[in-house]
Amino acid sequence: MIETTSSVRNISDTARWVAYFRARETERPDALFRDPYAGQLAGERGFHIANTLPEGNKHEWAWVARTYLFDHFISTAIQSGADLVVNLAAGLDARPYRMDLPALLQWVEVDLPEIISYKQEILADAKPRCRLNRIALDLSDVPARRDLFADLNRRARKIVVATEGLLIYFTPEEVGALAKDLADVGHLWNWIVDLTSPGQLKLMQRTSGAQLSEAGAAFKFGPPEGPRFFSQYGWEPKEVRGLLKTAAQFNRSPKGLMPIQDSLDPVPPNLPWTGVCLLEKSQSKV
Fold it and tell me: What tens digit of pLDDT does each residue of 179-214 get?
């Protein structure tokens, strides 16, 4: 039985919430991606969270657009020669099982032990399309993550890192420290991140963010500098795509919402905006 009085219990539950939206998109005849494992990964709790959290089922278009854009940027990086994909805070992502990937591609998923254990149980009989390795690690353990990054650097020639849905739970200082650690990885070339503007962050904190905060998953990161926040840590924005503009392109956006033009320049602080950015290591760090 699922408790009807409690929605999100901890930060790992947010992965079930996201999987619910992938399952919903997969059911559409015009689906932008198909994830046959999403419904099982979401489980009853994922469906419960989406339908009981304040506005938890309102922004399906945004989750779908975010998944689509991460798919796009990961595929682009692989086509450009990436031989290792590192998915930090991978959650219940099933890309190694559903995307068209080279069989020899290395894919490493990193997340908390609880989510790794749950995921391995659900996908025990599924076969990944590339060489998949899972690592249980709390990314807030700085020495441990630096050891991991050093080990990964020895495994590949060209690495791309994805942090889908992770940075918003970090403070700016924590994001900066992670950005610096990643910039120090010699064979890491690209980093894919999702960002919100300060205005969007405030909106999220007032709605579903209130209950998530009680569960230890508070929304914290919405830099006024936008993608250029990362420049001070050795990363330069190469391409920026807004979620609303992407959703509108595929007839997923709500009526009445007008897309904002994608730009490397930060949007006005009070204007709600969310997007995905492909970062490239600064020449000074190469």
Answer: 999 999 999 999 999 999 999 898 888 766 556 565
- Which domains, ranges and CATH numbers included, belong to the chain? 60-285 (3.40.50.150)
SS (H, E, C) the chain: CCCCCCCCCCCCHHHHHHHHHHHHHHCCCCCCCCCCCHHHHHHHHHHHHHHHCCCCCCCHHHHHHHHHHHHHHHHHHHHCCCCEEEEECCCCCCHHHHCCCCCCCEEEEEECHHHHHHHHHHCCCCCCCCEEEEEECCCCCHHHHHHHHHHHHCCCCCEEEEECCCHHHCCHHHHHHHHHHHHCCCCEEEEEEEEECHHHHHHHHHCHHHHHHHCCCCCCCCCCCHHHHHHHHCEEEEEEEEHHHHHHHCCCCCCCCCCCCCCCCCCCCCCCCEEEEEEEECHHHC
Cβ atoms of 41 and 29 closer than 8 Å: no
* Predicted TM-score of the model (pTM): 0.91
Residue whose C-alpha is closest to residue 92's, from 109, 75, 77, 70: 109
Record the tokens describing residue 268, joined without a space: 């006005």
